Amino acid sequence: MALMCKDVIERDEKVVIIQQCIHCGGETEWPITYEQWNDWQVKHKFIQEVFPEMSVDDRETMMNGTHPSCFNEIFKDMD
Ligand SMILES: [Zn+2]
Questions:
Q1: What is the three-class DSSP state of 78?
Q2: Where are the alpha helices (DSSP H) in 15-55?
């Protein structure tokens, strides 16, 4: 199973995805339902289909753990 997340805790019908920001090291927890996790990670549905109400920034942070502001910092440092 291709799991890109750092850690996943299964609690009853809930799944908590824990992602760490590569820039500041801060961890973000994303509690989602098992159904959503299954659709996203097992059935490989598009993330925008699984979490239609989530903002683009939030989806990005959930996928790679990096905060949008930190992401900008990384690119700024590359200049
Ligand atoms: Zn960060």
A1: helix
A2: 34-37, 47-50
Phi first, then psi, for residue 23 (nearest 5°) are -95, -55
Report yes or no: 70 and 23 within 8 Å, Cβ to Cβ.
yes
Written as tens digits, the pLDDT of the chain (79 aa) is 345 555 666 666 788 889 999 999 999 998 999 899 999 989 999 999 999 999 998 998 988 899 999 999 988 867 6
Domains of the chain, by residue range, sit at 7-78
* Pairing between β-strand 27-33 and β-strand 7-11 as defined by DSSP bridges: unpaired
CB 45 within 8 A of CB 64: no
- Tell me the CA–centroid distance for residue 66 and ligand 1, in Å: 5
pTM, two decimal places: 0.70
Distance from the CA of 5 to the center of ligand 1, in angstroms? 16
